[in-house]
Structure formats: structure tokens, C-alpha cells
Amino acid sequence: MPRIALPVPYGCTVTGIDGKAVGALVERARREVDSGLLPAAQLALALEGEIVVSEALGGCTTDTRFHTYSAVKPTVALTAMELAADGLFDKFAPVSYVLPSFGANGKKAITVSQVMLHAAGFPYAPLGRTETTDRAARLAAYASWRTDWEPGTRFEYHALSAHWVLADIVTEVTGRPYADVIAERVMEPSGCSRWLGISTDDQDDVADVAGVGSEPSAEELAAIGLEELPGRIGTEVLAAFNRPWLRAAGVPGGGGIARATEMARWYQAVLHNPDCFLHPEVRHDAMAVRQDQPDWTGTPANRSHAFVLAGNDGKAGMRGHGHGAPAEAFGHGGAAGQIAWADPASGISFAYLTNGLDRNDLASARRRVALSTRALACVRQ
Questions:
Q1: What is the DSSP secondary structure assignment for residue 59, as one 8-state letter?
Q2: Residue 6, pLDDT above cutoff 60
Q3: Which end of the chain offers a freer environment for a tag, N or C, measured as fewer CB atoms within 10 Å?
Q4: What is the model's pLDDT at position 217?
């Protein structure tokens, strides 16, 4: 895959890209940086396998790497799906068939598929520093996990817990560190570098995150019928990813580190599947909705085993996609407003990253949708 970023002057166009719309996109991204709210941000657009827009705003360059948080999840899920397609395990079989300790405490029947679809019933299962860095301790901890509701009966986002299980399945069936397998299986063949498990001597270009802004006001929350936001991960937890040991650990549900150009390029690879680096059946499954139970807002989750799809019900914005996104657009967001997606209808992919941890989750969600909406408009009709 091409690796050269080609910035687009606002008054010009690259074939297939509307320069005026690019200008509107960049100016929207620049707003919070110029106001002093966000320290830095990156965005990138790609089309037909090439990066056609790459912008760095504030205290960063296009070579700076940012924390992606949950936007790394699809790389973990797709790797597990690839290994299942190889016949190393059955994703519709219980997790306990691969990780026996997981089956304790009433979890024996939970399937890998349910884990992928955030339907497994343990969204807040805890792991400490020891379990994060010691796989034996982590496998032992799985035995103590319990379910909060009957698996398969509902959707509730598993921010970190589910993808630890998927990562340990990857290690169990390959006998190798999951971050290495992910890099070799779905990153390097797509022309991209690893996003997980960044060694401590390779972190000089990673932007530290910092809390910015204020919590949403009572009036903002009341406008959506809430007194507080459920399941919120606080700024202090997210800022812990500044620690070199945690970056090196490669937390599979939220420890991604990447550049916006790499993310946009990776989505181009998933879109076009060069050299069939993904099994065709895996790619098809990754584009098909398997989970449509509602989230806490009442919005159907519209998830595949790997991605969040925009859907055709007028609620794409609630899923982090741009307003007017085609139903088949697929991607995944991350804490603090990180987003990456691809649109099969137009062929465009987009990524946005920032190191400003906006304490107002409603504001960062609005920013994500506003940017995605403007990115969709950058393709010339």
C-alpha cells in the first residue's frame, strides 16, 4: 500500500476529492485547537488505496503517533476471525473450549461470538496491573469474573474486558504473543505498522494525552434525559496510557497507538483486501450486522464481529458515523473522539486523532460526527 501523504491545498483538488470540502473539514478540526481546547490533532483521508489528505494541527506533525483507544478493537477482532477461519477454533463455540479457566463462575456457555458482539455479560470485569502484564495471572483472574446479566440477552459495551479474552484466545491457539500475531496477520500485509505493544524504546514520537475542558453541564445532560453518563471512563483512567509500561503492554481493547494516515490506509486495505490478506468470508462477516440489540440510548448497536456499521435507520450519527453516511459504512471510534472508518459506496476512508481528553463526552461525540460528516462531503460526486 502507498505510504506517502499528499496534502491537498484548500483551493485545489486531487482526482476524486473536493478541495473546498477538504477546507471545511480541516477548519472544523482546527476550531478546538485554535481555541486552545485541544493541544493537537491529526486527520487523514484516503481514496483508492492512497492518502490524499493529511493534516497535523497544533503541537504535532504528521509523524506523531496518538493513542487510538478503542479504535484499535477491529484489528484484534479481525485477527481472531482470521484464526477461526484457519480452523484453529470455532468462534461460535464457548470461550471455555479454548481458555478453560474462563468457564468458571457460570461462564461456561459464553461463546467467542458473544464476546466479539459485546453480548457476553461482563462489561466491567476488572484486571489490575499484574494481570495486564502477566498472562498466567490474567487467565486465573478470568475464573473469578462473573456475569452481570444473562449472556446473549442484551448489548452493553465491553470497553476493555472482551478484547482481553480475544487477545488471549489469539495467544492460546498460536502459542505466540497476541500483539505480534495481530501485527503479522492484519497489519503488515495491509502495509501498516503495528498499533499494539509499542516497546518502551519506541515511544518518543507518541503524544502524551491530557485532560481538557469541563464535564457536561446538568443542563446538557437533562436535555438528553440523564443525570449522568452511564459507563463513562474517566480522564484519569485514560491518562494512565501515558505510562510507558502500559503502552508496551498493548491493552487490546484500548491501547492502540497510530498515526491518522496509518488508520486511513488500514481501512483502505480492509475495503479493497489487497492480495486477499483477509479471508473473503472473514471480510464478508466483518461487514455484516450481527448485533442489533439497543445500547443505553435505545439505538440499535448495528455491529458486526469487528466493526460498527452506519445503518439505514437515520441513526448513523449515534454510532459515530457522519450524518448521511451510507448504511454499509464501517468503522470504530475511541475515547476522546478518536474515529476511523471507510465508506464502500464512495471508496473513501477517514481518521481523526487527538491527544486532548475532552471531559465533556457529549462535545467529543458531536465533534466526531461533525468531522465524519464533513469527511463524507470531500468525495466529488
A1: S
A2: no
A3: C
A4: 72
Q: Angle CA(347)–CA(353)–CA(358) in degrees, nearest 5? A: 135
pLDDT of residue 5: 39
Query: Which pLDDT score is estimated for 231?
Result: 63
pTM: 0.93
Task: Kindly give, in sequence order, each residue whose CB lies less than 8 Å from that of residue 27, ignoring residues fewer than 6 positions away.
Answer: none
87 by DSSP, 3-state: which?
coil
Do 159 and 238 contact (CB within 8 A), yes or no?
Answer: no
Q: Give 354's strand partners.
A: 41
- CA gap 337, 355 in Å, rounded: 10
Q: Which amino acid is at 365?
A: A
> Rounded to 10 degrees, what is the CA torsion of 77, 80, 85, 91?
-90
Q: Tell me the pLDDT of the chain averaged across its residues.
A: 93
Residues with Cβ within 8 Å of residue 222, at least 6 apart in sequence? none
Query: Can you tell me which residue has the cell 485532560?
Result: 211
Q: CA–CA distance from 18 to each of 10, 52, 346 (Å)?
A: 9, 11, 13
Taking a C-beta distance cutoff of 8 angstroms, is the pair 267, 351 a contact?
yes
